[in-house]
Amino acid sequence: GVAAGITAVYALDNNVLPYQLVESDFLIGNKQLRELRQKIDASGNPTMFPDASIFRSTDNWY
């Protein structure tokens, strides 16, 4: 949806391929990824969800 479109436009505007935004070993410090996240959040699409994390155990997922 909207997030995919924002990502595509951001990639074209910044001459970067989307996968290059996340291939870094240190994602938190990636300035372009932070900028992209801010654009997606500003559109009303949240990028974080309560209790949703790849670091949580999946034992209780249904």
TrEMBL record:
Taxonomically, the superkingdom here is: Bacteria
Per its record, how is this protein called by name? Putative Uma1 protein
Organism of derivation: Microcystis sp. K3-9
Lineage of producing organism: Bacteria, Bacillati, Cyanobacteriota, Cyanophyceae, Oscillatoriophycideae
Gene of this entry: uma1
